[in-house]
């Protein structure tokens, strides 16, 4: 691997990891709320959260660009405090995070749905507050769903292209990830380079998906009371 | 019955909770040493426990346990479940599957609060099970762990939901003998839901009879667990049994006897492995007892007990149940209505009961 490739891999993995960590707290909170909330509006929230999964990624990127661009409503606020997001590494993280969020929420939610609420009730009678029971019973029993969701989100972030290219551009050494680099090399006719990077990407994806599968199997094998 | 009075905690229940088919309306005061709550399935028994534990939203009224106000909707008091000190044991145990038996038992023990972990482990004989996960425990073992988990928090009152009726618990595994120890040795007041009259008779000092969410009878167990209880539970009192608790003796002529009271000892299946003096509980099914009007001789049954009929009532489908007093203990005998008529079985009549040794099955 050339230094160039090492840098690309490091940047790509870091971006995916940071994006996953950022969405973890709100993702777990949203998943738990969706798993327990029985009132109206559930279907609507579900649908909105699933949108990034089904929309063309470029459409999501466009929305982000409009929001965060210098003339966008959020961009103007950020500009006022001297923060620029568009076409920065931060934009790569943001695009990946948005695209990966629904995957985390879906898996974590099914993890929470498997937890019998009566176990939480028992924990309460044994002296736990609501919050304590969440961390001692609900989360430990749902953690594999959360972990699988985080790995899926990480894998999704690794290969993100459409939203990223719109909101972060394709700037070598600044916002360029593996998938963006592959695109660039093919555009330049350097198919051998592109193929080499594709191989590296395949290896990364393999490791991430294999880990996810392993966790899923473990979760399935789990003995139940 | 050799049990002690046990600890008591006064109970004041005056609650209303709308359920699917009817409203649960309970208004009783109990001494609260050991209370059986009886009723058919769906009569509101479990809901009543959940109200006490603070797990039911929407209950209105007053719940006072041992002077502590847990619920007073008029005054806006609704104590959180974690503050109530109710030791809740659900029917299906609901152990935490990600924790070992020991971690389950220790779950509610906190620094700076009285804990009865060691006592609970010893009392329920959990030593060999402590390192195991719930998925590897049998139904009876799970219930013992759940009981210990509740007991370990030093609860003001144990709430037991049909602890003796879970489907996967075999006769040998029944927790009844352990419940007797919890009552008499740990001396924790308990309120338990059951539909088994035999169990209620041996465990309870007081009883509460529910029908469609309303109290049909409440008070001393000896009064409540009579005719009206059987009538109410008729469809579910199949397999009614007499439960006897006492001390084992090994007379010189061989065999094993259970000494229940001064005037009542029973031959039970020989159990040489149990040392004399062991406390034990036995179940005798009501349909396995033979009732005779005259003295019995030349029968193979080793236990022939003289007593007086104190009540007879129909149990439906041509069946009847006679309650017989033998040396201060109450026995229930199943017979047909035809036999009742032909023999003239009625209150006050002297009778003899023949009980085969093999019909006495040791619990645990």
TrEMBL record, chain A:
Primary residence: membrane
InterPro entries documented for this protein: MetI-like (IPR000515), MetI-like_sf (IPR035906), ModB_ABC (IPR011867)
One matching Pfam family: BPD_transp_1
Gene Ontology MF, one: molybdate ion transmembrane transporter activity
A GO cellular component annotation in the UniProt record: plasma membrane
Keyword Methyltransferase carried by entry: no
Function: Part of the binding-protein-dependent transport system for molybdenum; probably responsible for the translocation of the substrate across the membrane.
Residues that span the membrane, as ranges: 6-35, 47-65, 85-105, 194-212
Keyword entries, A-Z: Cell membrane, Membrane, Molybdenum, Transmembrane, Transmembrane helix, Transport
Keyword Cytoplasm: no
Compartments (UniProt record): Cell membrane
Record domain ABC transmembrane type-1: where: 9-216
Membrane topology listed for this record: Multi-pass membrane protein
Positions in coiled-coil regions: none
Native species: Myxococcus llanfairpwllgwyngyllgogerychwyrndrobwllllantysiliogogogochensis
Protein name per the record: Molybdenum transport system permease
Family per record: Belongs to the binding-protein-dependent transport system permease family. CysTW subfamily.
């Amino acid at each position: 691997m050339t230094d160039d490739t090492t840098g690309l891999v490091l940047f790509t993995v870091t971006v995916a990891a940071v994006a996953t960590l950022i969405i973890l707290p709100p993702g777990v909170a949203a998943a738990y709320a969706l798993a327990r909330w029985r009132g109206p509006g559930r279907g609507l929230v579900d649908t909105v959260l699933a949108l990034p999964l089904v929309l063309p990624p470029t459409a999501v990127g466009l929305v982000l660009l409009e929001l965060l661009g210098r003339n966008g409503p959020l961009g103007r606020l950020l500009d006022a405090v001297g923060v620029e997001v568009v076409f920065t590494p931060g934009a790569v993280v943001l695009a990946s995070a948005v695209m990966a969020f629904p995957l985390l929420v879906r898996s974590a939610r099914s993890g929470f749905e498997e937890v019998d609420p009566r176990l939480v009730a028992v924990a309460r009678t044994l002296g736990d507050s609501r919050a304590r029971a969440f961390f001692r019973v609900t989360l430990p029993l749902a953690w594999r769903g959360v972990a699988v969701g985080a790995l899926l989100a990480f894998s999704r972030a690794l290969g993100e292209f459409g939203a990223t290219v719109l909101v972060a551009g394709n700037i070598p050494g600044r916002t360029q990830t593996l998938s963006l680099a592959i695109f660039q090399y093919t555009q330049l006719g350097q198919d051998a380079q592109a193929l080499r990077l594709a191989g590296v990407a395949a290896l990364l994806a393999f490791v991430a998906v294999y880990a996810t599968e392993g966790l899923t199997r473990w979760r399935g094998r789990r003995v139940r009371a | 019955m050799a049990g002690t009075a046990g600890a008591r905690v006064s109970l004041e229940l005056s609650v209303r909770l709308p359920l699917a088919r009817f409203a649960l309306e309970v208004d009783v005061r109990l001494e609260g040493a050991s209370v059986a709550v009886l009723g058919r399935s769906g009569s509101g028994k479990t809901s009543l426990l959940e109200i006490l534990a603070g797990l039911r939203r929407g209950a209105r009224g007053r719940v006072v346990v041992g002077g502590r106000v847990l619920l007073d909707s008029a005054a806006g008091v609704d104590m959180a479940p974690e503050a109530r000190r109710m030791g809740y044991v659900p029917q299906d145990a609901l152990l935490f599957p990600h924790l070992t038996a020991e971690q389950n038992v220790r779950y509610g023990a906190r620094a700076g609060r009285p804990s009865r972990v060691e006592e609970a482990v010893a009392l329920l004989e959990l030593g060999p099970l402590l390192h195991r996960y719930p998925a590897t425990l049998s139904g009876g073992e799970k219930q013992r762990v759940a009981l210990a988990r509740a007991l370990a928090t030093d609860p003001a009152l144990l709430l037991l939901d049909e602890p003796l009726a879970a489907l996967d618990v075999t006769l040998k595994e029944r927790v009844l003998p352990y419940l007797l120890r919890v009552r008499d040795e740990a001396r924790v007041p308990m309120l338990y839901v059951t539909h088994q009259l035999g169990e209620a008779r041996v465990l309870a000092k007081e009883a509460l009879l529910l029908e469609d969410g309303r109290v049909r009878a409440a008070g001393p167990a000896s009064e409540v667990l009579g005719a009206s209880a059987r009538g109410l539970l008729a469809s579910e009192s199949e397999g009614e049994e007499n439960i006897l608790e006492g001390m084992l003796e090994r007379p010189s002529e061989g065999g094993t006897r259970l000494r229940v009271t001064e005037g009542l000892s029973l031959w039970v299946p020989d159990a040489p492995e149990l040392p004399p003096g062991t406390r034990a509980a036995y179940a005798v099914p009501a349909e396995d007892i033979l009732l005779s009007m005259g003295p019995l001789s030349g029968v193979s049954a080793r236990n022939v007990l003289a007593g007086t009929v104190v009540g007879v009532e129909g149990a439906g489908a041509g069946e009847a149940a006679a309650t017989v007093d033998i040396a201060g203990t109450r026995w229930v005998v199943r017979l047909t209505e035809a036999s009742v008529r032909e023999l003239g079985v009625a209150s006050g009549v002297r009778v003899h009961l023949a009980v085969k040794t093999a019909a006495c099955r040791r619990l645990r």
